[in-house]
Amino acid sequence: MDPFDNINNDHASLPRNMIENSMFEEEPDVVDLAKDSAAFPAFPALEPEEVVYEPRSSRLLVRGLGEAELDDEEEDYESSARLLGMSFMNRSSALRPSSSPYTRQALPRSCSRPSGRTMVVCVFILVLLVSISMVLYLLPGCTFTKAGCHKSNSSTPMELVFPKATNGKLFPWTERRLPASVRPLNYDLSLTPNLTTMTFTGHVVITMAIQHDTKRIVLHSATLNITKATFKLGGAEAMQVEVLEYPAWQQIAVSFPEALRAGQTCELSLGFSSSLSHAYDGLYNSSYTDQSGARRVLAATQFEPLAARKAFPCFDEPSFKATFLIRVIREPGYISLSNMPKSKTSLLSGGLQEDEFERSMNMSSYLVAVIVADFTCVSRNVSNTLVSVYSVPDKKEQTHFALDTASSLLLFYNSFFDINYPLKKLDLVAIPDFLAGAMENWGLITFRETSLLVRNQSSPLDKQLVASVIAHELAHQWFGNLVTMRWWNDLWLNEGFATYMQYLSLDRQLPQLDAGNVFLKVRLEAMAKDALNSSHPVSTQVTSPEQVEEMFDSVSYEKGASILLMLNASMPDGQFRKGIIQYLSRFSGSNTVTDDLWNSLTQAQVPAPSESVSAMMNTWTLQKGFPLVTATLQGRNLTFTQEHFLLSADNNTQTSSLWHIPITYVSDNCSSAPSCSNMFMLKNKTATVELPSSALWVKLNYRNTGFYMVHYGDQGWAHLTDALNTNISTLTDQDRASLIHNIFALSRLGRVTFRQVLSLMSYVINETETAPVLEGLSQLRTVYHLLDKRQEQGLASRMKGYILEVFRPAMDGQGWGEEVSVSRQEQRSALLEAACALGLQNCTQQALLLFNQYSAPNSTTRIPGDLQGVVYRAGAQTDAGWDFLLQAYGHASDAAEKRRLLRALASTQDARRIVWVLRAGLLGQDIQTQELPLVVSAVSDGFAGHLFAWDFVQQNWDQLLEKFPVGSYAIQSIIKSTTSQFSTQAHLEQVQAFFSSLKQKGSQMRSVLEATETIRLNQRWVDRILPTLQRWL
Ligand SMILES: [Zn+2]
Question: What is the DSSP string of 90-112?
Answer without folding.
Answer: HHHHTT-TT--HHHHHHHHHH-S
